[in-house]
Amino acid sequence: GESVGLHLPTLSVQEGDNSIINCAYSNSASDYFIWYKQESGKGPQFIIDIRSNMDKRQGQRVTVLLNKTVKHLSLQIAATQPGDSAVYFCAEREVNTGNQFYFGTGTSLTVIP
Amino acid sequence: NAGVTQTPKFQVLKTGQSMTLQCAQDMNHEYMSWYRQDPGMGLRLIHYSVGAGITDQGEVPNGYNVSRSTTEDFPLRLLSAAPSQTSVYFCASSYGDNQPQHFGDGTRLSIL
Predict the structure, then answer these.
(1) For residues B104 and B5, is the Cβ–Cβ distance under 8 A?
(2) B21 at interface of A, judged by CB pairs closer than 8 A
(3) Whole-angstrom Cα distance, residue B42 to residue A105?
């Protein structure tokens, strides 16, 4: 199957700054993308999703951008807080492999108070 | 609602032993799946089910069996545990395969 990659394995930001986490995907047939947050010892938690017919979607303090031309996905977190410290990973749904989701390895975000 | 509940949270097995990881959800979701999470790798799909009585293989199904006799429950069975199956196992559920998945908190499994 196709792999989903993340540009940076770790990211440290100052509390109050904005965070940007990137994700590259390689399957142009993917039609649905999800960002998850995973805290230590917990299961992944849904943050925000976007479908391939959209370029941008906003939630509370989070924005997901999708660039289908370069197969790139990003998660922006505004005014990062200590509670945002976690591992973030993206998932893509590939329609040509039985609609299965493929997950990236994750970026570890550390918020410095 | 409890969401997705996985038991046990931790388990240590010896090579060759068998066991069942339990997963239950109370959201009336049709779609359920099992993933394993290993260091340096993304979640990998083991088996999934689109509804009661229907199961299918994912990316890494070897050594695992599943069944879906009810909408709520989706147990994962290890037939003969091997050290390579040491991992964290997550169960997830959703309304469909094009909807966000709700995950349990995982079962941490060590095979000695």
Answers:
(1) yes
(2) no
(3) 4
Does residue A4 have a pLDDT over 70?
no
Q: Is the pLDDT of residue A8 over 80?
A: no
Distance CA B96, CA B88 (A): 24
pLDDT score, position B42: 87
Identify the pLDDT of residue A3: 41
Q: Strand A19-25 vs strand A72-77: parallel, antiparallel, or unpaired?
A: antiparallel
B38 reaches A (C-beta below 8 A): no
**pLDDT at position A6:** 45
Whole-angstrom CA distances from B62 to B53, B66, B111 are: 20, 11, 16
The distance of B104 to chain A (nearest Cα, Å) reads 5
Q: With helix as H, strand as E and coil as C, how does chain A read?
A: CCCEECCCCEEEEECCCCEEEEEEECCCCEEEEEEEEECCCCCCEEEEEEECCCCEEECCCEEEEEECCCCEEEEEECCCCHHHCEEEEEEEEEHHHCCEEEECCCEEEEEEC
One-letter amino acid at B74 equals F
Q: Give me the residues of chain B with pLDDT under 50, please.
A: none
CA–CA distance, B97 with A99 (Å, rounded to integer): 7
Residue A107 is which amino acid? T
In tens, the pLDDT along B45-68 reads 999 999 999 999 999 999 999 999
Q: Determine the average pLDDT of the residues in A17-36.
A: 93
Q: Which chain B residue is nearest to residue A87, measuring alpha carbons?
A: B42
Does the beta-carbon distance from A42 to B106 stay under 8 Å? yes
